[in-house]
Amino acid sequence: MILDLVLIGLVITLEPIPLTAFLLILMSKGGVRKGAAFIFGWLLSLAAVVALTVLVTGNKPPKPSTAPSLAALAAKILIGVVLLVVAERHRRRLGQPKKPKKPPKWQTGIDNMSPWVVIGLAPLTQPWGLVAAGVATIVEAKLDSVQSYIALFLFCIVSTAVYLVMELYAGFRPERAQAILGSVRTWIDTHTDQVIIGVSLGLGLWLVGKSIYLLVT
Predict the structure, then answer these.
(1) What are the domain boundaries of the chain?
(2) For the residues 171-196, what does the mean pLDDT come to?
């Protein structure tokens, strides 16, 4: 379970679209305070999903080869297949000219955005399809040891790792942060397809391959 949750968490924290939104917030007026608010909202939504999943399952994971356990594996396979389709779609777009897109309306007022609004914005940018893969894994877990609690904690922290690093850097090195964060944003803008292909392909193959193996065995 730990390996699955860590891999899913890594893909969540590397997703380019929410990461771009966080960079814009962090580079705005009062960005460090707003960045902390974004991370709080991001972690709060993840923790709420984890707690709700454990509450719904009653901390009683389904027994192997039963309908609920097979449904959890089927959900992982479905999510994995969707990720593979996403990777293929972006692979086909490589090298093709991109149509200019209008920035979202929320970006125009980002400098005047309050931290409370940012807290609410964070869950809206969550890649919920990937979070669903984490939920399907948590459904199979029984919290009866320190290791299982550590796994859930790691999932939340790893899913936020890049955001935490950038927030800390912007807080301790504000004079250099703007230039570096700008370079990171430029890199993401020019390599979005490659990043999505890499993370979607890797996690998709893992979810499909492992789930099919568990179904067969």
Answers:
(1) 2-216
(2) 88
